[in-house]
Give the backbone structure.
Amino acid sequence: MAFEGPIEELSLFDLFQLLSLSQKTGTLIIKTNNEEIEIFFKSGKIIAVRKDDAISERKAAQELIFSIIDANKGYFSFSDSKLPDGLKEDFKLKIDNLILEASRRIDELAKIKQNLPSEDTVLMLSPKASSADSLDLTTEDWEIISYVDGVRNIGDIIETIGNEYDTKKHIYGLMKAGLLTTVEEVYEEEMKETPRGPKQILLDTANEFYLNGDFRASRSILEKFLSLYPEEKEALYNLALTMVRTGDFTSAKEITDKLLLDSGDLSNENVVKLDGILSTILKFL
């Protein structure tokens, strides 16, 4: 017997328990978060999970289920007694164990979310990160650290690595250990304790990206910097240079127009020179 319906009317927790208690054999298709996942049941136990035509190994299958089991929107359909020909029975996942672990993760993730900044928050390495080699960090910790560049936010890192639960848990642990901080925290520390230190770190990071040819990353940091320090004329001039490098001549010209009116301590000669170059370029565009 086949049945289907929206997840809003029958949660995946309840659906999995129903298939387990009735010892169903068949194929469950779940569509949620713009994804389609096939879960194969035999006598009420999960024996395979497929996404994008790829059969997952046991651990990957579990993580895939954990990522969708608390979905509140989507659609499911179950085809009773229908399994693909040649499907290998590599493992058997008991539904009770999956639900217990999923419930624990959901509770733990809710607590982490209460203490973790929003996913829009941009992360930075703290000065303490220079001693990370002496700490007992996991492979997952190092992977997260490799993506922290003062440009990516928490959401970007989660999307890149995947596995929201584990990634958020490790980010939270690294922040608690003082190895990661946020651009906003750097700004607050700068206002309270070290007027030039963290501020200079941002400028140095932007400059390093610029010198290495990563002009988009440099621009992103400078834009964030100027949202915190809008009166910094040198940073504004440097932002114009990154815009030139990325081909955004119109925005760069808008900045030089502002600097010509008020360049502060910045060399007016450099501003005039850059403005002249931009005027010439824009005439031919």
User: Anything to note?
Assistant: The first strand starts at residue 3 and ends at 6. The two ends are 66 Å apart (CA to CA). The chain has a mean pLDDT of 85. Residues 249 and 282 are 7 Å apart (CA to CA).
